[in-house]
Amino acid sequence: MAAIPFPRLEPTKEEEPKEIRPDLNVRLICPDCKNPVPNIIEEFANGDLVCGDCGLVLGDRIIDTRSEWRTFANDEGDDPSRVGAAANPLLDGAQLDTVISRKDGGSGTARDLNKVHGRATAVKGEKNLIQAYKEIAAMCDAIGLTKLIADIAKQLYKRAEEEKLLRGKSTESIIAACIFIACRQENVPRTFKEICAITRVPKKEIGRCFKTLIRTFETNVTTMTSEDLMSRFCSMLGLQIQVQKAAVYLTKRVKELGTLAGKSPVSVAAACIYLISNLFQQPKSTREIANVTGVSEVTIKNSYKLLYKDKEGLLEDKRYGSVEALPSP
How many CA atoms lie within 13 A of 100 on its CB side? Predict the structure, then answer.
């Protein structure tokens, strides 16, 4: 049985010593060669199981498990397989339903039959799941997230629906929290403001759903740091790679010295980008940085003042340039 994605968190128990049991795995070995690493070949054309070393036939009339490349459709169909589409692991049920075609020459009868048949065979709750999956995919595409992250968000949403965790919460807020967790888990974090912008859900609602899901399910969510955001922000601002490396170095120095203690990772990243861009003679205005990071211009300026006061200690490495070039706050 496959492991359930996002299992529930359970209290830790003391592990008992595992019982040693006999190996019941069946191993097929040629009786002539007796090779511990057998080279068994399946000849589907003849239906035989043959030893690849000595040619001894070990079995006959084996079943061909490959695709059946024959078509029984009319000229309209171009799929040479009649075994149906692959099962969707995100949906429940056997998924072996027959679908009535909507094409019948324009009479409309087939369309009506298709509609009635769809209502009769619809699985309870599946329509809502499919709609939620479409919204997750659309939102992930809107901010350039990969299909892997979208699939993780879908799995988490399905688990939340199965456990009936967030009754009374809107579908949009649950979807937003699932996307937020999926991004954190795959080390491509997005800020709350970015998630709020695409889902149009208040930050407090996303936070409540996020905390409930984290407390209930096992996740690999890591704490977001300024370094995680730096490459994306620098790329969106059109800054060169050496500027990005210098900004990452500065954020590490800021953490070591505690210059911006108490500030959010996004604010730290924005202030460091502002300082380093001026240091490398590629200045970006506070408005440009605010539009990309979602941090207000006032916050960037206030954080920059603290960095400017401690500029000598933060930029001891002179390879990044002279701190005298920095504009006064």
Answer: 16
Q: Which of 48-52, 86-90, 223-227, 279-283 has the lowest mean pLDDT?
A: 86-90
Q: Using CA atoms, how far apart are residues 46 and 64, in angstroms rounded to an integer?
A: 10
The total of other beta-carbon atoms located within 10 Å of residue 268's CB is: 25
User: What's the CA gap between 182 and 217, in Å, rounded?
Assistant: 13
Query: Range with the lowest mean pLDDT among 86-95, 115-124, 137-146, 290-299?
Result: 86-95
pLDDT digits (tens, 9 = 90+) for 5-62: 778 876 666 667 778 887 777 777 888 888 888 888 888 778 888 998 888 888 888 8
Of 271, 249, 245, 246, nearest in space to 260 by CA: 271
Spatial CA neighbour of 180 closest among 131, 216, 213: 213
Contacts for 172 with CB less than 8 Å, ≥ 6 apart = 135, 199, 200, 201
Averaged over 264-283, what is the pLDDT? 89
The CA dihedral of 66, 70, 75, 76, to the nearest 10 degrees, is -20
Give the residue among 221, 199, 200 at the shortest CA–CA distance from 210: 221
Both tokens of 125, joined, read 């709750």
What is the value of pTM for the model shown?
0.68
For residues 248 and 185, what is the distance between their CA atoms, to the nearest angstrom? 21
| 3-state SS, residue 60 | strand
Q: Tell me the per-residue pLDDT of 225-250, one tens digit each, with 9 for 90 and over.
A: 888 888 889 988 888 888 888 889 88
Burial 180-196 (b: 16+ CB within 10 A, else e): bbbbbbeebbbbbebbb
Q: In what side-by-side order are the strands of the sheet with 48-51?
A: 40-43, 48-51, 57-60
Query: Which residue has 């916050």 as its token pair?
Result: 299
